[in-house]
Request: fold
Amino acid sequence: MSKTTVIIPTLNSEKYLRETLRSLKQNNKSIFKIFIIDAGSNDNTVKIIKEEKLKNLNFFLVKKNIAKSLDFGLSRLKTLYFSRIDSDDVAMKDRFKKQIYYLKKDKNLAAVGSNVLFVKDKSIIKKTDLPLSYESILTKFFVDGDIALAHPATSLRVQSVKNVGGYENYNFSEDYNLWIRLVFKKYKIINLA
Reply:
């Protein structure tokens, strides 16, 4: 299947969640399912999810940290790929389609990230300049210890992530930990401009 499952961890996400969900609607042709995994919100997060009426959405209440929530979602996937987005992010049109294209094209590719724009009051305040090729990502890692992938802007091959043990139980840096394990198992990772 050439579609992705989008995993969104939430916790008291009412401020931006509606915008996030609406951005997924413009990517609907590339999305098989949307998993929202909530850690126990006590604001209007659940109300917003119901109001947006996304037909392919599955909601789970899992009162765990982000790594355990992501592993919970990973264990329920029926697609070859999954994509990450945070509840305060917006997906550009065709983001998932473009990332899946590269994952399909290269079976050794485990993750496809992208540069991101930081927005405040509807104005772009910063744009990342992440290395794009696998080789340049590795060089950056060996030079300064940073694996330059923005986790909420990645699409990943499910089997590759499972092969390295999924997300390990960290309260933070669960993404960095995953990138290191993928790289050391010789999986390729890239970014799109």
